[in-house]
Amino acid sequence: MTVSMPIERIVAIGGTYGPETLCAFEAQDRIVGVLSSAKQRGELRTFLEDKTVVGTSSFTWNIEKIVEQEPDIVLAYAFRFFPDYEEQLDAFGVPLVQMDFHAPAKYSKETRNLGWILNEQERAEELVNFEQQHIDRIKERVEDLEPGEKQRVYFEWYKDYQAVGSGTANHNAIVVCGGVNIFEDETGYPTIDPEAVPARDPQVIIRCCNEKDIFGYDATDTAPLEEKRDGILTRDGWADIDAITSERVYLLSTYSHSTHTSVFYSYIAKWLHPELFEDIDPVEVHSDWFEEFLGIEYKGLYAYPSYPVP
Length: 310
Fold this sequence. Notes:
Shape: elongated
Number of strands: 12
Largest sheet: 5 strands, parallel
Low-confidence stretches: none
Structural class: alpha/beta
Helix content: 25-40%
Number of helices: 13
Mean pLDDT: 95
Strand order of the largest sheet: 3-2-1-6-7
């Protein structure tokens, strides 16, 4: 692919990840078009409120609107192809650049590539170093755990009884943070029999949530989170599960992951091994990212309870 430089006008189609990464590069003035979902992210509101909406989802674009913005590039996800859209953009001489900033295995490479395109290599290294230092710290502290010391984890995706299996980013998060996924024998995000969870007796239960009204930068009320957590604690047939009797049940917002896996991992590691991370405050790590790369104050709700239940 040939991309003419300098890059001054960017349409960011990659969900909220593309716009957030560009804002973290302090390149928000180069953004000329985004998806409607990106404008709903509280963290990004002040950066994107005046940007033109050019699509309703990561897979539904308005090519006419995109072309009207006269972008130098369109920045989209790389985990799938968009042949029809790419062909239409080619007809107007607009390059489609695809990157996955949300994927931990690709993050360093993609961030450095974007830094090169933007001529912001130093900022790229700052972003990569932030992630690496926090993730390396987690790995170092759990690397000597014996198999019996690793916590058994049931990680539930967005729907009730939708487990996390092998081959997913969330399975990898459990492993990196010193846990054992009780459904590692499954793949993807299978719906499991509720009775299978007591049979495997997890020590920690984590439910991932994507509801914008109860989690995120604008959320302030913990009552809906307490209600959602209570619903898990009182599920039929689960009373004797280790995680239930010890009340080690936690809710984690998908927004805590975003383009900063280190934040996501910090919450999980603290829940799994509070004794190893006694000096680590995940909220502080999260706050540092906001302040250093977006220049905004931390607020909102991203994890509940934030700290391990005694």
